[in-house]
Amino acid sequence: CGVTVQAFDFTPRAIRHVQTAAAGQPRFVFHPVGLWNADTTLQFWAPRNPAHVSYSALNLQGTQESLAAPVRRPASLLRELGQVRIDLLKLDVEGAEYAVLSSLLEDGLLPQVLCVEFDQPLPVWRTVSLLWRLHRAGMRLVAVEVWNHTFVQKSLLEDRASQSQIVR
């Protein structure tokens, strides 16, 4: 499709995997940092099962092993990369989705398509509040599978609808 994919992940296994799996792929650009609502360094906690990859800033699994990793606010990354918008964003960030999505809302940088897994949906009011904020910002929920949610910008849906009416 001629697009460039920017991937962000600080976990050691992800870094090793990308170094081999995406070697020589010029349209796949990997950044060994996490996403957050600030440019800083955070402590991330290992998964309970050593076969799993994902670390959590919220220590969702109550483990003792951790690592410090750099994290970036999406707006900072976009400026640094010379980008003005996000077409598609997939977030599976082990509880950090609330901080990341809030920063996107604050900065007016919502993508055209957003796929997000809510890893810590309790209390439910917290998730519902964020879903409502996304809706008010023009994101429309188009699919839900357990805690995986897919949103599309309302304007993109309206463009599609008007194009289909012209074709009829």
Describe the structure.
- The protein is of the alpha/beta class and 168 residues long.
- The chain has 5 helices and 9 strands, in the order βαββββαβαβαββα.
- β8 and β9 form a beta hairpin.
- The longest helix has 14 residues.
- The mean pLDDT is 92.
**Strand-pairing-aware structural class:** alpha/beta
Fraction in helix: 25-40%
| SSE run | EHEEEEHEHEHEEH
Distance between the termini: 27 Å
Mean pLDDT: 92
How many strand segments? 9
Treating each run of at least 4 consecutive H or I residues as one helix, how many helices? Answer: 5
Low-confidence stretches: none
Give a quick account of the main beta sheet: strands, pairing sense, barrel closure.
4 strands, mixed
* Widest beta sheet: strand line-up: 6-7-9-8
The whole-angstrom Rg is 17 Å
Q: What is the general shape?
A: globular
In percent, how much strand structure appears in the residues? Answer: 25-35%
